[in-house]
Amino acid sequence: MKMTERFFLRGGDGSMAKERLVVIGGDAAGMTAASQARRQKRDLEIIVFERGPHTSYAA
Q1: In which domain, by residue range, is 59 found?
Q2: Pairing mode, strands 20-24 and 3-7
Q3: Among 8, 19, 34, 53, which is least packed, fewest CB within 10 Å?
């Protein structure tokens, strides 16, 4: 099971910063989640953490 975390950051002045999606795992499931999120929100910042040297290109 893949773990994704969605959270909002606040700027120093208390304003909302850009929305960010953090994906743990760069295999097919993780990259599919990132791809689906990008399709729904074009301005979403996506960060993927993968411990291996490669990520999946299947998504």
Answers
A1: 28-59
A2: antiparallel
A3: 53
